[in-house]
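Sequence and structure are no longer studied apart. As an example, we show below a sequence and the tokens encoding its fold:
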Amino acid sequence: MTSRRRLNSWVLGLLALGISLSLAQEEFYPTVVELERRGKKIEATTVSPDNYWVNFSGEIVLGQLEAVEGSLVRLKGQGAYWFNGESRVLREGRPAKPGDFKAGEWLEVAFNSDRKDDRGNAFLMRMAPLKKSAQAEEVQNKKSYQYFAMSDAKRIKVTFGKDATAFGNLVLIDKGVEELVRLSDGFAREVGEGDDRKVEIEAKATPSSVEVVQGKSKAFGSELIYDNDTGDAKVAGPIKLERSGDKPLNGNANALTYNVDDETLLLSGQVRLTQKERTTSAQSAVVRERDGVAYLYGTKEAPVTSESKDGKVRGTKLKYNLDTGDVVVLEGIEGEFQD
């Protein structure tokens, strides 16, 4: 009896240890960075313990560019700010150079006043064109700047309200006057030790590395740039589209835009949809996933063309049922049908 009690006690101890280790392994708190647009939340979230994230903070100054002199950006009446390879210079969400900007152009400059050069100039963290009036109240109230970089071995998840979700290995988020989300392939990590320790960030536009999911539809592209001012998430191509269902659909396009307000997908440039025996080509297409339809657009010179075993129809505007593959020409109808 004594040996059995000891055995039972030993087994229970192992079970308790196993449960404790399991709970410890399962304990994971995701990092979430949030923007908001018209009551809808745009959230970037880490999804696994194998992630890295970093946050940089600074102040904001608005002004007109006076000159770029060596490693200095000088603003009219606002002093000068020094920059190096770590400074982020952007135009339309993509990397640019200080020399690309013209004198007199209004800029939003984020700076770190704790990091100064030997002349006392603050470090330029980020520079971008000011899209809004410098006198606008919403602009004047923006005094602080935050920059987030997040990467995850199982991909970062970015949700646009409750309607669409995007996935990618790296997300870069700017929260200043301009609020941007850039999702792409790449990584963020810490390298070096002690005083040599630094953050290394590399964003790459790799084909099919970014996935956008809305309902039954999935689209793949090379990078996504979301502008919270417009509500547009623009995905660079080449775009591959997949839609599940009884009649699966595949497609291609040069670019894609998801609009947070309308909850629509806009395919543009050499749009091609294939479903069973039907192939449809257009210059652009608006996909309304919730309604299960797409509207395809062309011109008289380059009309929408939809062809199946039963014949071919053309028009400048076509309605496409995504579930059944049925098409209706709404404008500029032409047709060729098999006997």
About this structure: The radius of gyration is 26 Å. The helical segments are 2-26, 137-140. Residues 1-7 have pLDDT under 50 and may be disordered. The chain is about 10% helix and 60% strand.
